[in-house]
């Protein structure tokens, strides 16, 4: 009798294990899904390469920049310009000011979010301070660059893109990366 | 009097080996009937514990202002009420019914894996002891809602989260073991001639439910594990600061959560499909379409999870997809309701308590279905979402749906379990008190929700006061009415009119061919199905 | 008037359907009829007496909210019609096809024709429902350029509004006094739906809301606009509205966000564009002046009484939700301040945690939420209230010094 049950039981146990794995697989799947559909306005964490996109001079898109330190992050963090009008395909560079006003060294990570979410697919960052962690010593100020272009394929219905950064404190666990980040940014 | 024994199974001892004596019988039992009884009694206990928490909630909400409990404790009550009712009352009750009935319905001597069956029950009391014990720790128990949205359940919760996660793991393991047992039993132990399309619908719906359980309980186990590692081990699945996304939590949770809703209602469909034909004295209308409808509801349940999260911000295309899929579920569900009505049509009906609960189920579950359909409409959902309209909706499908079907099942099979007829007058009293109070309890919630009262709040604006008082009165009355049920069950176990083997005039199925009460071992030689 | 009428119709249908179910039942079980009847009278009495609570979804004050309302009613009526048909057949059968009438049960158990029909028919109804729903949804997601953009940030348990094109930003907190919640004072008309500083928007203009959160998930909801958007930490969400009539519109946080989820209302005041311009100009000036005044304060010393009075007010508004009015906190969740080491001994750490918060906990940084003098006062208060009696006085200048450290 038990022998008769064994194959079914084994198959069901495998199915259970597979579904447990699937729960975890949903994490990368979700990222893929976000990349495809622009769900939740996630942007790529990789630098985009400047394709030979021909700027579309006929069209203008308003790009707004929001920068917020999270509420237990005591830095000053704001974009130097708050909004610009761009032609899709044009490469632009803007700076963000970060100022560690506390009396200790801190490491921060900026998390980007784009609204409307689907526009995130067409917002390409070639260089961004959000790709790495930023380390600032006590009282240090830093201008952090963002270089981007809006893909000319951006659907017509989008006329405004809002890019928001939330700045979080990172527990200083990776001093090596922090150092490299500092080195890069002491311009 | 000496002929009336208090133990319904006592006479089974004359057979080759009957139940052991005392506590050991229950601790070591591998008998599907004993385990079924344990599950049912456990779920009844949990129903009252979860119900007591609902009473605390309704007492606090009886009047505006904070009177009885602090908001933090109120949140613990709503959270643990939800967890207990879902995982402790409804699911174990259905598993208990499955244990009692599936072997008897398919002509099997027992469940396929009896020792595992013992385990899957006996780990449950530990799971719920852990969950309930967490209420007494410093800072109280889980207070983030039964949906435990991150980061409220991770960064912003107290250490009861660890206990919560552990207890959900145990509940999940129990459910998965129960589901494996059901599937193996149905696949391997059907009596000769019992083809799949001859199985009673209760067996069919449980077969599908068991697959749903195996598909989604591991996902729940995964998501609670992620919560645990996010809180204690430095991972960032749901923490934006570390590159995670709190909305991802909701996607994974509801990928489990929506099929879970059907886990709690598909067996109910099976129960109603057994009872309505009996008391209509007419075969079930559209057996095959019932099977197909159940399967398609189960399949669709994997495609609609995001309708719980329309307000989280989604691309229009995604919103439309989930809206259309959700609306589609109305079709197979409608087919079921139409089939039940067609079964009654030109039957010869009588209205014993199981039938009364089934009729109430059909009407009130359908009302819950209508509000579900309204909730599927994305633009309107922006107004309904997270208000009492939602609370009304899911209590109509879970209380007057799942719980009423469990009540109906208990009344329907009690004579077979105990060998005695239950007290019909008392049963009718229980039914009518429940029916009226449950509607006083949940119907006004529709209005309160439409008027704009959010759910999960311990205090509310003055305009909601009158209706909340009314709802609380309904709540207390419904809670008290359930004591009648306990009284009735105790009475029925102790004695009463002797039940015949068939019990109900129109009953059909293998379980009605064996003695009442069902002997400790039934179908040791499989019956022959024509 | 129109609103009231339509609401009444909606309610009547709802009640009728309910009554219908009840009445059919009543006809065959006599002994419970009295109970049912009294319930019905009770329910109907309620719907007439409590006139202050609308019994239906609001029609709101925007084109979108009106569309949502119409959609809601359309689907509600369709559901009622289906319900009446299905339950009608069911109860007809219950009355006529009962054993006590001596009927012989029929034995039919399937009919492919009928089954196909009642599979196809609902599909048609669903398509009829889906068309207007799709249209409304697409209208709601119109992302064309807005006239005013406002960044809304939720945090435990308050909202923060920041006008993107003006130097105006502020927190909006529950204004209902604690005594009303604790039933020590009688409750005001807008109990739990009132804030100290409402959001102000112009009428007739497209106002865009960018919604985000600083800690857990909140949800910004104003029923009159049919706007409900989740505030997700680290992500922004977008919603918009165009309000036609000036007025005060109230809503609440709709997503469970912890202990005081029930106590973070949303109040929006819509003003004529001219009034709005005037308001925002004045507000910019006031906020700029406040910053200057803050600097002047550095030179001044406040007396203990002043510090304690301002400190108590600030504490009750910003700190008491977690640390409790008596400073005892909630064991295991929020630490006590009364008798705590930090409040009794370590002054620099005390100022630091109020200024900068503590990562990974609910303790927010109040540096940008409160003025220097408020922070000084609240620290003084925490060190002297509830028998803490350290005698420490903290001045705005001390806070400024700590900031620049």
From TrEMBL, chain B:
Name of the featured protein: Cytochrome c oxidase subunit 1
Enzyme Commission number(s): 7.1.1.9
UniProt membrane topology term: Multi-pass membrane protein
The entry's keywords: Cell membrane, Copper, Electron transport, Heme, Iron, Membrane, Metal-binding, Respiratory chain, Translocase, Transmembrane, Transmembrane helix, Transport
Annotated catalysed reactions: 4 Fe(II)-[cytochrome c] + O2 + 8 H(+)(in) = 4 Fe(III)-[cytochrome c] + 2 H2O + 4 H(+)(out)
Source organism phylogeny: Bacteria, Pseudomonadati, Pseudomonadota, Gammaproteobacteria, Chromatiales
Superkingdom of origin organism: Bacteria
KW ATP-binding (keyword) present: no
